[in-house]
Design a protein that fits this description.
Layout (H helix, E strand, L loop, with lengths): L20 E5 L2 E8 L2 E5 L17 E5 L2 E4 L5 H8 L18 H15 L2 E3 L3 H8 L16 H4 L31 E7 L8 E2 L10 E4 L15 E4 L10 E3 L2 E3 L20 E5 L3
Parallel strand pairs: 4-8, 7-11
Antiparallel strand pairs: 1-2, 1-13, 2-5, 3-4, 5-12, 6-12, 7-9, 9-10
The structure holds calcium ion.
The site of calcium ion has 8 residues, from loops.
Length: 279
């Protein structure tokens, strides 16, 4: 393995605690975007209501702590760097990886966590929706990043029946790409009706039969791309169509109070580099 452990160098921008983090694994870099926690209304809020399904009800308050989430869907390049093979039907370095089960996603984040000595995991459904809505910068759009779907997402009317390179459409209020469209994204939760109770950092039901998928994909109609739309899939079933992927969420190292206390190479293995992105 190529040794890529590098010094952080300039800026110390991670001291602000709110700038993207860049990790490099086997020469493949990816960004994790800071999402400042807060309270939001989850489910079929006013702008979603006309086309919302029953499972998007009731709208309920959710409070989340700070977290980081992937700037893009996991690319095939990153998947191969971590896992060593490519399961995708539509092959391309910067295309999102697909044809992966929920269990495959668990293996990926476990291995990525080991490589980086950081706690990567799938986002919870609440974390996914809050980020898709733009977090505390939300402008209240129907889709992630806007109300004009063609500007922000690949879906059945413009997708050409295939996936597309990540990051080609407009980003949302947090700088996240393709949360609506391109490929659907696995969340960590079991799929179940909402309880409607006030929730803090919810992780979903303790058991179930299907895992949550969010955001819709290249083969889906417009309604599937809404930020509150819910979908689910049998977790051990390999995707028979190329629409499943996920984003990673990163936990702060244990014992650290904020990112300003975490050194650039703290605990990283020698084939992994991380640094604060200069923006
Ligand atoms: Ca997506």
């Amino acid at each position: 393995m190529t040794l890529l452990l590098m010094a952080l160098g300039c800026c110390g921008v991670q001291a602000q605690g709110k700038t993207p983090l860049t990790f490099t694994v086997e020469g493949v870099a990816f960004n994790m975007v800071f999402v400042e926690g807060g309270e939001f209304m989850m489910g079929a809020t006013e702008e979603q209501r006309d086309k919302a399904g029953q499972d998007e009800q009731p709208v309920h308050p959710v409070t989340l702590r700070n977290y980081y989430i992937g700037e893009t869907e996991v690319t095939q390049e990153l998947w191969v760097a971590v896992m060593g093979y490519n399961p995708s039907y539509f092959e391309g370095t910067n295309l999102p990886v697909e044809r992966v089960s929920w269990q495959d996603a668990q293996k990926f984040v476990k291995k990525l966590s080991k490589l980086t000595n950081r706690n990567f995991r799938l986002p919870t459904e609440a974390e996914w929706e809050y980020a898709a809505r733009g977090g505390n910068r939300s402008l209240g759009h129907v889709y992630s990043g806007g109300d004009n779907l063609d500007e922000v997402a690949w879906y059945d009317d413009n997708g050409g029946e295939r996936t597309h390179r990540v990051g080609e459409k407009h980003a949302n209020e947090l700088g996240l790409f393709d949360m609506s469209g391109n490929v659907r994204e696995w969340c960590s939760d079991w799929y179940d009706p909402y309880s409607g109770k006030d929730q803090r950092n919810p992780k979903g039901p303790k058991e179930g039969t299907e895992r949550v998928l969010r955001g819709g994909g290249w083969s889906n109609m417009t309604d599937f791309l809404r930020v509150s739309f819910r979908n689910s899939f049998n977790p051990p079933r390999p995707a028979t169509v190329s629409v499943c992927a996920w984003r990673c969420r990163i936990e702060m190292p244990s014992g650290a109070e904020d990112w300003s206390t975490v050194g650039p190479d703290q605990g990283c293995l020698k084939n992994v580099r991380w640094e604060a992105a200069v923006i």
